Amino acid sequence: MIKIxxxxxxxxxxxxVAILENVGKEFEVIKYLENTLTENELNKILALLxxxxxxxxRKNEKIWKENFKGKELTDEEIVKAMxxxxxxxxxxIVVNGTKAVIGRPPEKINDIL
Length: 113
Hints:
Elements: E1 2-5, H1 11-23, E2 27-30, H2 39-49, H3 62-67, H4 75-84, E3 93-96, E4 99-102
Parallel strand pairs: 1-2
Antiparallel strand pairs: 1-3, 3-4
């Protein structure tokens, strides 16, 4: 089943949900700010995205700027920071089987449907 890691306060994330609704396929909405991801879950998503942890970080978030910017962090430390501060995770993320994409712009979601 298709999964979208979603933040309802984000317009790009809402657009991602709309794209999935228009396709007409079943999908699961995961509100990752409420149901936080584990390090293992986030690492699996990163593997599907084929990116390093730093590429998934929202670097303009206040939390990042105040606590992590300019520090040399390992991939594990970056993953831990995102798990502890899920607002740092770029959104939306759509997973379809063995494929995943960050929906920025939201139209990129079509690439894995």
